Amino acid sequence: MKFETAEFESKMKKSVEAYGKSLLVLRVGRASPEVLSKVTIDYYGTPTPINQIAEMKVTDARTLLINSWDKSQLKAIEKAILASDLGLNPQNDGSCIRIIFPAMTEETRRAMTKQVAKMGEDAKVAVRNIRREANDAIKAKKKNNEMTEDEAKAGDKQVQDLTDKYIKGIDEVTAAKQKEIMEI
């Protein structure tokens, strides 16, 4: 009986995708609507992401323009952006909000690359936890005599190969993002 790794591969793939999405939120000196993806406002009693109540567009490399469909919510949007830990200063002119992304200094670039490395390490830990879960499943099957010793070793090797593949992918994404940050 061959050990089925599809479930664990799916979990590893989701971990890598979540890591990629979390990198989009990083503020890297370039205007991007994704930076505000986790910022919500209290919209008539419901926490609502900004992109659901306003149009966000990049007007130039460092400027993000937010046009709320409900102009009475501009103050709430401005407060939510200020309250977030993104370090952005929105400028509200009464009809729209402009966010000018400051140019990154060498110091902020280095800090950002360290943050990317930490996020990458967290993603690797998630993949390794999935590996442990898979190895535990193999051990349980072997203990219950549902698998032979050879099948268990083959299963362990499959799981390790999967883990190596996804960790290598995380390393590649991390290196690319760090390179991008240092070149901005």
Q: How would you summarize what this structure contains?
A:
This protein is α+β, with helices and mostly antiparallel strands. The chain is 55% helix and 15% strand. The chain has a 4-stranded antiparallel β-sheet with strand order 3-4-6-5, covered by helices on one side. The protein has a two-stranded antiparallel ribbon with strand order 1-2.
How is this structure best described in words?
With 184 residues, the protein is an alpha+beta fold. 55% of the residues lie in helices and 15% in strands. It has helices at 6-24, 74-83, 106-143, 149-183; strands spanning 40-43, 46-49, 54-60, 63-68, 90-92, 97-100. The strands form two sheets. The chain has a four-stranded antiparallel sheet, with helices on one face. It has a two-stranded antiparallel sheet with strand order 1-2. A hairpin with a 4-residue loop joins strand 5 and strand 6 (97-100). Helix 1 runs parallel beside helix 4 (149-183) and helix 3 runs antiparallel to helix 4 (149-183). It starts with 5 loop residues before the first helix and ends with a helix. 22% of the residues are buried. The mean pLDDT is 87.
- How would you spell out the order of helices and strands? HEEEEHEEHH
Radius of gyration: 22 Å
Distance between the termini: 52 Å
Query: What is the assembly state of the chains in this entry?
Result: single chain
Helicity range: 55-70%
Largest sheet descriptor: 4 strands, antiparallel
Low-pLDDT regions = none
Overall pLDDT metric: 87
Instruction: Choose one word for the global shape.
Output: elongated
Class from secondary-structure proportions = alpha+beta
Query: What is the count of helical runs?
Result: 4
Tell me the total number of β-strands.
6
Strand order of the largest sheet: 3-4-6-5
Question: What percent of residues are in strands?
Answer: 15-25%
